[in-house]
Amino acid sequence: MDDDLDLRDFSDVTRLFPLPKVVLFPHVVLPLHIFEPRYRQMTEDALADDRLITIVQLKTVPDVGGWTEPAAVEEVGCLGKIIRHERLADGRFNLLLLGRKRVRLRCEPPSGRLYRVAEVDVLDDLAPGDSEAARRAGLVDLFRRVVGREHALDPDFSKLLNASAPLGVLVDVMAHALSLPIELKQSLLNEPSVEKRCGTIQDLLERLEQIAGSAPRTHPFPPDFSLN
User: Fold this and answer.
1) Confidence band (pLDDT; 50, 70, 90) for 51?
2) Residues 42-77 as b or e (16 or more Cβ within 10 Å = b)
3) Please, which residues bridge with residue 107 across strands?
């Protein structure tokens, strides 16, 4: 998945799918239901070409009514690849989109299409400076202590914890699995440094471990967030 062969022809111009309060991380799968005409067109174009779509979060979501287009979006999104699709009889789609790479939006050129496109820079992970194996082992042990003891972990997630996946992959999947505030998820997506992302997740889990250890067992756990 990480050899990037599927991205070798990526031109740095990507279809945009702005969504409210949705952050996609690399290495995770997002189910999508496509029904608006502009995004049906986007999906048709993607399926006929490179199958790539970038999920980017809307900066603000009005409480009442709609917003003026083009709505403001975050500077960093996630390039995703359609790995499975179902075309419905009325023209809608069900998709599974696999997150591939962080991307920073440079500009939005005219596309001549119903949907928006952007020129982007791919943000590769900045590797941790110390022993990745040691950091990974410590994070997995902490996650199992804090979350695994209270929740039945998904078999695929347990397999990832037992495997030797890169630390960057592990941290991104944890950030997706934990129901964190959307602002925190966006900040984790913005951060290319694996070490900094790992530190943020580790600090959160350590705080939860302290709270869980001192709280009565009748209190809900985790107190601030739980597995999706």
Assistant:
1) very high
2) bbebbeeebbbbbbbbbeeeeeeeeeeeeeebbebb
3) 119
pLDDT, one tens digit per residue, over 107-164 is: 999 989 999 999 999 999 998 877 788 888 899 999 888 886 556 677 777 788 888 7
DSSP assignment of the chain: --S-GGGTT--SEEEEEEETT----TT-EEEEEE-SHHHHHHHHHHHHTT-EEEEEEBS---SSS--PSSPPB-SEEEEEEEEEEEE-TTS-EEEEEEEEEEEEEEE----SSSS-EEEEEEEPPBPPSS-HHHHHHHHHHHHIIIIITTS---HHHHHHHHTT--HHHHHHHHHHHB---HHHHHHHHH--BHHHHHHHHHHHHHHHHHHHHHS-TTS-SSSS--B-
Entry pTM? 0.87
- pLDDT one-digit tens code per residue, 13-39: 999 999 999 999 999 999 999 999 999
The Cα-based distances of 124 to 53, 140, 217 in angstroms read: 18, 23, 42
